[in-house]
Amino acid sequence: TLTVQSLARELGVPTHVLSKAINAFFGKTFPELLHDYRLREAERMLVSANHRHLSIEGIAHESGFASLSAFYAAFKKQYSQTPAAYQKAH
Fold it and tell me: I need a labelling partner for 50 at 20 to 30 A (CA). Which of 19, 44, 69, 84 fits?
């Protein structure tokens, strides 16, 4: 449920200022940055021994994806393989 508005509110800055700063620093919009972060977090969990107890669905949920299908589609687009195949290869 993280949004640029909620983050700006927490930081005490106007939304447009935060959005502009994110675009300038990362070269991405806030939703793109958040999406990339979630994928990197999922990737880390898939290969971490500390997260072996989690199912693929659990990893999707823990990394912030709203649905398993959205997670699979995003992961496959980014890494050219399914999360299960990635986990098995690593």
Answer: 69
HSE-up (13 A, CA, CB side) for residue 77: 9
Residue 49 CA to residue 25 CA, distance in Å, equals 33
Q: How far apart are CA 39 and CA 57, in angstroms?
A: 13
Cβ(43)–Cβ(82) under 8 Å? no
Residues 37-80 pLDDT 10s: 999 999 999 999 999 999 999 999 999 999 999 999 999 999 99
What is the largest distance, in Å, between two alpha-carbon atoms of the chain?
A: 44
Three-class SS of residue 81? coil
Decide if 78 contacts 39 (C-beta within 8 A).
yes
For the entire predicted model, the pTM comes to: 0.85
Looking up tokens 């806030």 gives 30
